[in-house]
Amino acid sequence: MNRPALIIAKKELRMFFDSLVAYILLIAFLGFSGFFTWFYGSDIFLTKQASLDSFFDTSYWTLFFFIPALTMRSIAEENKTGTIELLLTKPISNWQVLWGKFLACLLLILIALLCTIPYIITIAWLGKGNLDLGVVSNGYLGLLLMSAAYISIGIFASSITGNQVVAFLIALFTGIFFHWVFGLVGGGLTGTPGEIINYIGMSEHFDGIKRGLIDSRDIIYFGSIIFLGLVLAEVSLAKRNTAE
Terminal CA-to-CA distance of the chain, rounded, Å? Predict the structure, then answer.
């Protein structure tokens, strides 16, 4: 990560707040996660259990739907308006552009998660100090890794089209396989095929980290998706440069 990528990240993050995208994401995320964490299905005020499991389970799905909406304009809008060509003619590489946009999206997700710190304080108070902060920190790490993986998929989807809606749908339907389908299919199979398909699924790795177990295989899994998504996006941008 070098200075041009950081400049792009800063510019993209500022654009999120200038266009109200950031505020909409933050309000919607906090609204959904807060409602389902505190009131729906698990009333923490009544049970007084020192656990953030309901928050992590809710955020696992909430972020899954929000991230394609966050990334859909990252390159698709510039493809549509032609500003991507202008950007790529400057003395910066495709990787710097992609890493800058990736970092901006990830920082916005990080800001959204930091806004939930009052959840930790309140639940720790309700649980009279019995909240396992190690498990909580792993849960947040799992959400960040999952978000980073879907951001890379979303950026790739945005790089292959000039239509934001199409980019959103490609990212969403691709994510559905990782988020749900692979786990469902893998759970119905036995032996090596089931283990392989389960490994491809996102929940297998997120649940492990959320439980407080950081396995190198989980880190490799998320790192591989992040890298593959950005590589495919870079290939898409390179083909555009070659075609011109």
Answer: 27
